[in-house]
Design goal:
By secondary structure, the chain is of the alpha/beta class. The chain is built from ten helices and six strands, in the order H-H-H-E-H-E-H-E-H-H-E-H-E-H-E-H.
Length: 206
């Protein structure tokens, strides 16, 4: 919806759209990952895809930074939708007032350098941003990536991160589905979490 609102022309592969393999990568199953990456690349090649717009940090990282190390001649341009939107001169039709603590995705901040785009979009939407103690490339993890193996450690990390974000503002904005689910669950009713797309849709809706 946001891309359409901004006038960006794009298509979708629907049933042919395959998972990026991020969990396989996190678990270190290198042989399985390479085979899966080649399968995904074959589908993209079949459809003549030259550029991909991603909607989450992990897919962005896989297609932009990991796949080139696994596939010879891989040359697909990859941008996250936040990067695409930040490049456009969008004017909010319904500016939002409020203060939020920003929670950086570890993958965005540390591996993909996606720091300015989400801040630019949120400020353009009208919000006042507050940075927690650990922010940017020093952001604290939400605990989500290790939840399947170490649920207690994941829950404790999420609780600590919620405390830090709560000290910065009564609300927080995330930009990763794992972060959103994990932090919201840990916070219970002590503070509110919203995905960045929720704020942007409200501010830039037609």
């Amino acid at each position: 919806l946001l891309l359409r609102r901004a006038g960006v022309a794009f298509g979708a592969l629907f049933e042919d759209d395959l998972y990026s393999g991020a969990l396989i990568y996190d678990l270190g199953a290198d042989e399985a990952l390479k085979a899966h990456a080649q399968k995904v690349n074959a589908v993209l090649t079949k459809h003549g895809v030259k550029e991909v717009i991603t909607i989450d940090p992990h897919t962005t990282n896989m297609l932009r930074s990991v796949y080139p190390t696994l596939i010879d001649g891989y040359d697909i341009k990859v941008r996250n939708y936040l990067e695409v939107l930040a490049e456009l001169d969008m004017v909010p039709s319904h500016p939002i007032e409020g203060e939020v603590a920003i929670h950086d995705s570890c993958v965005f901040a540390r591996y993909e350098g996606v720091l300015g785009a989400p801040r630019q979009l949120l400020e353009r939407a009208g919000l006042t941003l507050h940075e927690p103690e650990h922010t940017g490339t020093s952001t604290w993890c939400c605990g989500g990536p290790v939840e399947s193996l170490y649920p207690k450690k994941a829950a404790e990390q999420a609780r600590r991160r919620v405390e830090e974000l709560r000290a910065a503002a009564g609300r927080s904005v995330t930009m990763c589905p794992l972060c959103y689910i994990n932090l919201q669950k840990a916070a219970k009713d002590t503070m509110r979490f919203d995905d960045i797309s929720d704020y942007l849709l409200r501010a830039f809706e037609a």
